[in-house]
Structure formats: structure tokens, C-alpha cells
Amino acid sequence: MKTTQRPFAVLAVLLLLTATGCTDGLFKDPSRLEFNTSGMDSDAAKTPFLRMGTDVLKSDGTNVMLAAGGRDAGGARRLVWNSSDAGRTWVPALFDGKELNSRPYAFIRGNGQWLALIPEDNRLRGYSSKDGRAFSKTGGALELPQGSTKLGALWTRNAWTVVTAKKSRITIHRSGDGSGWTSITPKGLPGTEDTSIYAAAASASTLVLGGQTDGPGGKIRARAFASGDGGTTWRDISPDASKAAPRNSGFRSVSWDGKAFRFLGFGWPEDSWPGQTARGLDASWAPGGASKGKWNVALDTSWADGEDDFPWVFGRSAAPNRQGMLTVAGNGGGAEYKFLQRATAGGWKETALPKIGREQFLYPEDTAQVPEGTLLATSFGDDGTFRPRIYLFSGNGTAQERSPQLQPLAPGAPVVSRFVSAEGKTFALGSIGRQTALWESTDGKDFSRHTVLTLGATQMFTSMSSTPHGDIMSGMEDAWNNSDTLIWSRKPGGAWSGHSGDIFSAEAGVDHAAVESTLSTVHGFLVAGSYADEDGSSTSAGLAMSKDGRSWKRIDAPSFAGKEDNDRAIHVLMETPGKTFLAGGFMEKDIKNAPVVWRSADAKSWTPVALAKVKGFTDSKVLGLAVGRTMTVALVYAEQEGKGSRYVLYGSTDQGKTWTSGTALPEALGREAYGPVHLLQNGDGFAVTGTMGTPQEQKPFLYTSPDGKEFQAKELKHGAFGNGSVAINAATVQHGKLLLSGFAGEPDSREQFALTVNVPR
After folding, report:
1. Which residues form a coiled coil (predicted)?
2. Domain containing 634: what range?
């Protein structure tokens, strides 16, 4: 059975956009950067950049929570709305009086209030609200096992309940107040590798799980388990599905409709042939009432007929008289989405999506039940712009739009995604609206020279590197649920050449490939990142080379190849003054990530050099490299379940052959969720800058070192920062000055800045 990633899954590999500012008033601020925007007045330049989709749609009667995420011109943006009238009107939900700036893990309704679980510091913080509009932190935090999958976030037995799976291990996390959490290792579940649990649902008194067991001879059978004490003890309630699906069967989804648990899965009838796609399996089980403990199991071809790819089910919602769900079949750009509904009895029926324009797109993302009908959350796409759109489908099948108002940030100055300094020049890669350009400066202040880059509506650049051997930019051509790598490159004095498509020769239709770093060398252009195999069971480090920027060949070093539970990835490329190429990333061992720097003299043969893991942390990876005359510095990110995360700087004086652990930055600094951390060369020294704080309150930080051995904290101040949150998303050092670009202020009133400051000594 094939599956595909949810929309926006690919966006997890993009750098945050930043923006520059302009000077108001009669006197120019000498610290402000100046950009020439002549000729950038096209329709694309006048169209604000916006790519946002639905994260969560959850309802309780007429009370509805909607969370959306993505990016606008100011970078990453998250919004949460509440509606008390089934989507007719929406108001922003505030968390401790501020807009949320991270993606919610879950919204749970119980005991007359909402509980929002919000990721902070590698933990989940609880925020509660009676009306869904004013949330307050509950205190305490839920620490989830690293690498675990959420099966359900539920209310049962008078407690908030989160069910997670890590391979065959199921953990039940419970809290009576949303603050203190107890993690339970359940009794009565198989706990063996041959049994997989895929879904969870709950009524007020019963918690159920659904999945499958792989038996002898390749026999697969559907499994279900129930708990009446909140998840401590379990009993096997698995049905006998052999009459409906004698070949094989399994459950993939379960929901509670107010009367019974409704399971969906797959099954093969007796007359199926080898290689035939499974048909849908429908089952129901009631814990009480006249049908207590009884199963109804049957094949259901109304949503999976066995003729096409088996669909992945998501976005399910259920009420006593109505159910809704979304399915997607196929992979990549050929994936087919469907919105289906059914009454309590009977088969599923596809519901047509609202009609839109010829060059527009509507992607279903989630459903919720309200008294009037089914709410459908979609992302509406028009000329490269995407925004959430909500529809109510009433019982007669008519659709009424009930979308919140979303005003994208529309700065009047360029938005910069990357600063690059090389050979006495500084480049700024950015855009106005959806018009992309490359600015150039020789003094690190006046960016008067610029080149407008003609891109398609769904194309964007996010990164750039420059050396004496040429320039190279990377990004993506985004088809919403499938993305192709976009590469533009040029040799000194030459014209740009482009490549769009597969870069690591991964399987067609697999959207698990990502380019994270680029480098121009005497041997040609290099791009690095990672790619997954066809079934996503392992990830390999990806490295490809091109002489002309148009045709690319993957470099298959043995140490790049990933295996199951042994993933690898490259995050950064660099060349030392001694002409040694370095590639920083990680190699997984025993389900733990270890930092590694690969070395090469010719960019073809690569040898991994393991760095010592950060003491006290289980997982580490190299995210940055900076090269000086006598020292090479690596920025290592470390994390551990229940301990948060930390950045540590390592040094090498022998072209990356050996590494010594150095300064450990405070744990509160630069968490990945708050934007990139920039490791920069500053003459013979180095600097590290980025954003620290919490999702609701961020501020900049700066550490410097004269030799790369010991880093000291420095105060980073400027009038443009104001008194609110500050996010630094682009930085470089040129002529002894630190160039910064970002936004200051609250999410709904951010002010852009682009400025230069002296590097404090």
C-alpha cells in the first residue's frame, strides 16, 4: 500500500525568509542597508508572498478551533482562530495574551474546556481555555519519547490522554489538569514487533487502539484493543475478519461517533489474486448498549475498490448521524484527493469540492463535525499563493464558505532570504512580493546593483553560496504535495543555467529528497542533503556534482548509504584553505544520531570523521561549518529526550582530521524552531548569531571568538529592535561589520530591518 506525505510536509526543509528595511525621515541612518528596487514593479512584485495551510481543525458542537501555518514575507507564521458559531465568524486565539508562534501538537476538548499542547523546548506545554479564545499556560510539560508517533490526543476517564507509538512500544500519557503528566507503559498489549498499532480513539469511558499483526506465512489480521481504566490495562477485542477478508486484513483508522467505534482498514477477499490492491474494510464495535461487545465487519468498496492505489485516510471526523474523511491515493504530483461523507449506516459517498478557476487549486486538509454539517478545511492556491479556506457542507450537499480573514504581511522593501559574502562582495538573495532578485554590494551597505530573476509562480530560492569558482542558488519548484529541487548556477562571468527536478536520482514520485547546502569548486558545482528510499524506511546522505549546472551525477560514497535505523544526512558543505572539502551532518547508530564531518580531496571520494557526541545528550548533528586561516569551526546541535537541546562549537586545526569540543552555548539559545543559527567567519575569528527565547517572545543573541577556541557572549543592540520580539534570519560579516536582516515586533505588527553593526570585541 502506498501513501503520500501530507501537504506542506516538504516545507520542513526550507530556510525562513527575512526582510530588509528602509529609512524614513530627512536624515539617513548610516547603519541601514540600502536596496535599489528599480524595475521591480511587475504584477508578481505587487502580489504578497503567502503560503499557508491548515494544521488542525477541531470542533465541539459549534465551538471550533482552527490552526494554520506556513510563511509570509516575514518568515514563518502561525495563526490560531476560534469560532463559537460553527465558522460563521472567527477571532484570533491568544496564548498568555499573545499570538502563537509554533505549530500546535494537538487540541483536545474535555471537561468543558480546550487543552492546547504546544511544542516548547522539545517538550509539550499545556495551555487551557474555556472559550477557545484566551489560553493560559497550565504549568508543567509533557515529555514525549524521541522519534515517537502521535496516535491520538483524547479526553477519556476524566483525563487528557495522549497515545504515542515508537515502533512496537505504546505509551499512554495522562493528566487530570493539563499540567502534571503520568506516562504509562500499558499492560495487556502484545508489545512485539509483529504487531503494529496505527490509530487510537476514545469515548468518555473507553480507549481503543487499532492495527494489525503479521503472522506466520505472511498472514496479516486486523487487531483491536480496549481499555476501561484510561490505558493502564488492556484486553484484546480483535474481531474475526476472516469471513469478510479471508486473505489478509488490518485497521488503519478509528473514530468514536458517539455510539460506536468505527474502524477503517484494508482487506483481501477470497477471490483476490497476487498483486491486487486491497479493498476497504469497514468495522464497528460498541462498548455498551444493545450491541455491547459485538462486531460488524465487512469489505467496503465505496472508498477503496481494489482497482487503484490503496488510499491513505486522514482528516476523519464523526458525529452520531454523520461522518467525514479525506483520502489520497498515489504519490507526488499524481496524487488524487477525495472528500467523502456518509450517514451512520451505508457506504461512503464522494462529495464534490467547490468549483474554482482553471489555474486555481483546492487541496482538502481536514474535517470537523458541527450541528449544521461537515466543515472542510482546504488550502486554496492561486498563482503560487496558498491560504486556508473553510467550507460548510450541509445535509443537502451545498457548500458555504466560512473562512477567516487573513492579511498577509506586505513589506514595501525587499525580502532577503540569504546574505553571502565572498571575494570582497556581498550578495543578497531576496524578493519583493513574488518577484525574485539578486542584489550585490562592494561595501556591504549599498546594494544598488541588482538582477531580476524570472521564476515560475511556484518556484522559489531559499539558499545561495558564492566562491571564486562560481555562484549557485538552490530552492524548489513546489507542486504543493510534491516538490522538485530547483538549482541555478553560473561560472565567473557566465550566464545562469538552471535545473529543476530530481537531483539525487531518488525514485520518481518520492518527495523525501532535500538539498540543504551548495558549493562551487574547481571540480564543478556541488549540492548536498539527503534522500529517502522508495518506501521511506531509510535515508541516505545525498551529494551530487555538475560541471555545467544542468546535468547532475550523484556521488555514491559507501559511507553515504543509509540503512534501516541507520540514516545519514549532510547539512553543510565547505572548502578549507588547504583545498580539503568538508561535509557536515550525522550518521545514525543504534537509533541515535552521531555528528560527523566527511572529508575529501577531490569531492569524489569521502571519508567520515566522527566527532565526539555532546556530553549528556544522546543525539547530535553538524549544522554549520566556518573556515578560517588556521582554524575550522563546526556548529553541532545536540538534543535528548527530556533535556531540551544545545549548540556546541567544535574546532579543528588540521583540515577536519580531528575535532575538539569547545564552547557549549547556553541551552536556551537558538532552538531550531526559532530560525537558523548562523556560524560566520570574522577575519581570523568567528561569530555565532541567531534567535533565542520562547515561541511567544524572541530576542537576538551573539557570540564571538578571536580564534575559534573560546566564544564569549556579546550584547547585540539596535534601535530597530524595539522592545518586542526580534527574529534574525539572515546574517553575514563583511569588512568587519555584521550584516543582519529580520523582523521586530509582534507577529501581527512586525517591522522589517536590514542593518549593519560593529562586531563587539
Report:
1. none
2. 502-664
